[in-house]
């Protein structure tokens, strides 16, 4: 009888242990499911309970940190990730999470440090290389970011995102030659992308290669005739080179596509003025001023030429014509020059 009791006790303990192990596994899976479903508070509560039983489990600490990071608790998340890394020192994902936590708290230099540590373990990890590039860009170190993207291209020469980023960063760094090279690569890879042609045109324009800029804008328009940015930039180039008919044609397209574009109406009005279309110029100045009511230059131009139109006076050589104030002329020239410059798409 005593022997049977002992056997039953052993069996009971064994079964209890098995059930406890199964229960623990089920709780871990439930916690993971909470994370997947975005139930971060529920996941955190369950991970805290699990860690009381298994304090040396790196996965539990790491996942706890993920829940905290998603909740915006950067400091506590970082503490959990560091504890996880102490338990699993060669983990690339944990180092990446530590980098994300430092980035969350604004310590980008430390985020770069831990991402580079992860790259030592996994040097061909494109995701990590892109993270380094993004962190360098965030810090304003465009040259370092470009180099990180070049490292990606050494693994995949046709990575469009990396090439595009090199083009963008080179433009922001005023390295137009390098940017042009990047966008020339892109038009070979994606010749039907109108924005790539547009960005190539922007860089040619910034590099004072105006004929090539116009060609690139024309290619963009052939692909997408509604690309008002390409029409606008082309119109500005023609305007700046005194080709008023060509400029007017391009800006007519702009205001058809974007009738709320004040700058296009304004330069269009100047084109019309030089071409002798008094009434058309007044209407364009009126639209430009109405769309930018706080712009004193546009308002002054409209008022002046509306007055001239009302007395039916030509623009040139009229005895009734009072010259515009010098400050208005100077500011309008500056504005017109500034409008020629265009930034790359975000």
UniProtKB/TrEMBL annotation:
Classification via Pfam families: TPR_16 (PF13432), TPR_17 (PF13431), TPR_2 (PF07719)
Keyword annotations of the record: Membrane, Repeat, TPR repeat, Transmembrane, Transmembrane helix
Entry's Gene Ontology BP terms: receptor-mediated virion attachment to host cell
InterPro entries the UniProt entry points to: TPR-like_helical_dom_sf (IPR011990), TPR_2 (IPR013105), TPR_rpt (IPR019734), Ycf3 (IPR050498)
Transmembrane region(s): 324-341
Record's keyword annotation contains Acetylation: no
Swiss-Prot/TrEMBL TPR repeat ranges: 58-91, 92-125, 126-159, 160-193, 194-227, 228-261
Record's keyword annotation contains Acetylation: no
PANTHER family from the UniProt entry: TETRATRICOPEPTIDE REPEAT PROTEIN 6, UDP-N-ACETYLGLUCOSAMINE--PEPTIDE N-ACETYLGLUCOSAMINYLTRANSFERASE SPINDLY-RELATED
Protein name: Tetratricopeptide repeat protein
Species assigned in the record: Methanospirillum purgamenti
């Amino acid at each position: 009888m005593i022997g049977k009791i002992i056997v039953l006790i052993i069996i009971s303990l064994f079964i209890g242990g098995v059930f406890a192990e199964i229960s623990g596994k089920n709780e871990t899976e439930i916690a993971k499911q909470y994370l997947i479903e975005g139930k971060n508070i529920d996941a955190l509560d369950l991970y805290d309970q699990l860690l009381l039983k298994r304090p040396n489990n790196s996965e539990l600490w790491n996942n706890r940190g993920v829940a905290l990071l998603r909740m915006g608790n950067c400091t506590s998340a970082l503490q959990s990730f560091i504890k996880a890394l102490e338990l699993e020192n060669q983990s690339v994902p944990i180092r990446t999470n530590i980098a994300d936590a430092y980035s969350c708290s604004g310590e980008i230099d430390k985020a770069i440090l831990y991402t580079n540590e992860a790259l030592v373990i996994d040097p061909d990890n494109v995701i990590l290389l892109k993270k380094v590039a993004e962190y360098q860009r965030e810090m304003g170190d465009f040259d370092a970011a470009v180099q990180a993207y070049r490292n990606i291209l050494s693994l995949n020469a046709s990575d469009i995102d990396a090439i595009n980023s090199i083009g963008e960063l080179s433009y922001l760094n005023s390295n137009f030659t390098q940017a042009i090279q990047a966008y020339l690569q892109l038009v070979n890879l994606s010749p039907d992308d109108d924005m790539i042609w547009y960005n190539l045109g922007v860089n040619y324009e910034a590099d004072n290669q105006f004929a090539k800029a116009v060609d690139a804008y024309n290619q963009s328009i052939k692909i997408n005739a509604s690309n008002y940015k390409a029409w606008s930039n082309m119109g500005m180039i023609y305007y700046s080179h005194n080709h008023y008919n060509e400029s007017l044609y391009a800006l007519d397209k702009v205001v058809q596509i974007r009738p709320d574009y004040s700058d296009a109406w304004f330069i269009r009005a100047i084109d019309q003025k030089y071409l002798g279309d008094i009434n058309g110029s007044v209407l364009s100045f009126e639209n430009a001023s109405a769309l930018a009511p706080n712009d004193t230059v546009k308002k002054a131009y409209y008022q002046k030429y509306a007055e001239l139109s009302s007395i039916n006076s030509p623009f040139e050589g009229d005895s009734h014509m009072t010259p515009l104030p010098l400050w208005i002329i100077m500011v309008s020239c500056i504005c017109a020059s500034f409008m020629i410059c265009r930034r790359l798409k975000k």
